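retry 2 of 3: previous attempt timed out while embedding fe (ii) ion. Reduced batch size to 1 and resubmitted. Inputs unchanged:
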Amino acid sequence: MGEVLVDEAFIQLEENRPNLALTVDDDELPVIDLSNLEDDASLASVAAQIGHACRTWGFFQVINHGVADEVIENILSEAGKFFELPLEEKRKIGKDFRKRQLGFCEPDRVHGVRQWRQGFDYLVIGYDEDKELTNQWPEYPPELRKWALKFSSETEKLGMRIIGLVSLSLGRPASKLSGYFKLNTRRYTKLHHCPPCPAPHLALGASAHEDEGALALLIQDSVGGLEIKRRADGEWIRVRPIPNAYVVNVGHMMEAWTNGEYVSVMHRVKLKPDKGRLSCILFFNPIHGTTIEPLEEILKGESPNPKYKPYSLGNYFAKPEELVNN
Ligand SMILES: O=C(O)CCC(=O)C(=O)O
Ligand SMILES: [Fe+2]
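retry 2 succeeded.
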């Protein structure tokens, strides 16, 4: 028996463990510049880039996206201060679905394997707060709340712009898809911290998974670790950290809307022995209860047979017991 490096609950099945010796760079993963959307020609060009990225990669990065650097820098630094607190402090605001409270999350399980990460979950709550779930904020750092809410509201607005561009990329008006979304709803944001890991060859900060929603928008610090499974050859590709850029990815809902034209792609988070990593993720999902099915206009086009049955996430937050981590 070798030395026990991490609790066995964190150890991935052999076939899911990362090959640390192999890091393939993402030279072709699209980085899309949103600075010029003034005229129709620029809009069409950016929309085409987004369409290509969603079809080929299911992932892209955006730069010059309009969210102020200060917002990104502050949420990362406030999140960093929070995760550095002793565990007992963080547990004071532990997430507890039985009490309908969000907050600090212990390492969760995906398919039975614990993720080498801690989290902090909160909702973007606007005018329609209905007390089904409550945010909890720590006393320290005192500015976490301010920057977290600012980050989410700015990221939502960016999500709305990107969803409009996705709609244009499908040859539809921007409002076709953006009409399914609303700002200031009970939308989830997660802050994630993967501590340095003594066994990065055995554990992962996030097991390989696809996202269920429409789009996820995330920022990551300079440490890196996010990888996506390239469709072309199944190789794991590094998503290079670009300062203040957002990583955007297609989830199952978008895949269903486009009848599989835009793809939701596997991704995971690799760990480092000497460095912790931070990321902040907003799940940009439509209004609760929206029925998701291939868009009529898509079915009129080249792929007339629906590959996805209509479904709805329903009122996701109405049954918190169903969300309790296993
Ligand atoms: O932390 C990250 O960079 C990715 C996390 C993720 O993929 C998720 O929460 O769905
Ligand atoms: Fe994900």
